[in-house]
Amino acid sequence: MNAEPFKVAVVSAGTSDPSSTRLLADRTAERAAALAARHGNSQLVTPKLQQAITVLGEADGIIAAAPVYKAGPSGLFTSFFGVLDNDLLIAKPVVLAATAGTARHALVADEAMRPMFAYLRTMTAPTSLFAAPEDWGDPALATRIDRAALELVLLMESGFAQAIKDQSWASYQHEYGSAGGTETSIDLGTDLMRLAAGGSAG
Question: Under 8 Å CB-to-CB from 136, ≥6 apart: which residues?
């Protein structure tokens, strides 16, 4: 059992007030907190915008929720995750969630969001969440939220992300300046790097 309470970051790109995207993210976070409490690991940390990157880096798990615009997650959502350090979320457990005005977009979390989080090398929960207006009164949504929240808690409890950092971090191909600027062990003297800097090979 984890000695420290889990930290779960909730990233919601919903911009309306009230926001169904924020509602879905908050309901999932509440269920994850309740399940973690039953497992003896309670506490949620909700990031303020200016602290978001630090909070994500320190989080044990993430709930990432986006509204769907033009058949994909909102640009605000993808832009936020697009500017993160590629090493920030390695092996972190993530629940993906999306909301839309119609059920036609039900696969956005799996078809558009899951590949992005795979690129960021996260551990996405098997259950993704989607809610259209008609889903809010359906008990099946609560069942899916419970399932996704439990998967998140179990992934956090597994300690997999920490084991990756402890045992396998060096085996990842880190980009120059990644890992918060600490991954700088690139040989700048190679022919390719000299050419890239405007010099000549050899």
Answer: 20, 23
